[in-house]
Inverse folding.
């Protein structure tokens, strides 16, 4: 069973601006874009740097160091030099408006 953890309120997430949070020791980049909130592992699979320092465009986050881009929905890289995906995590929103609670689960289901 997945354990969801409250990580932010919707109002804390600026559109198209990644926010780094840590959940049980796992670095996560939260991104509010295209009307949805995504949670993706914050470490680039190519260069071991923080993805939350990169740019968001077209439902993808770009690594600031070498320019690899990762799909926020799947974690798959859409540009070299990265060839391995990064984990994505399920997100739940409870409530309405800017005070809505954002929950993320980094627990792997078996």
């Amino acid at each position: 069973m997945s354990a969801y953890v409250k990580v932010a309120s919707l109002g804390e997430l600026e559109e198209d601006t990644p926010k780094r949070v840590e959940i049980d020791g796992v670095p996560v980049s939260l991104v509010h874009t295209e009307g949805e909130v995504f949670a993706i592992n914050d470490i680039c699979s190519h260069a071991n740097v923080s993805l939350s320092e990169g740019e968001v465009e077209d439902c993808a986050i770009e690594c600031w160091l070498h320019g690899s881009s990762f799909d926020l929905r799947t974690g798959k890289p859409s540009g070299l030099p990265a060839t391995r995906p990064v984990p994505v995590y399920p997100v739940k929103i409870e409530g309405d408006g800017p005070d809505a609670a954002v929950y993320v689960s980094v627990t792997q289901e078996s």
User: Anything to note?
Assistant: The longest strand covers residues 26-33. DSSP finds no helices and ten strands in the chain. The mean pLDDT is 94. Residues 4 and 105 are 4 Å apart (CA to CA).
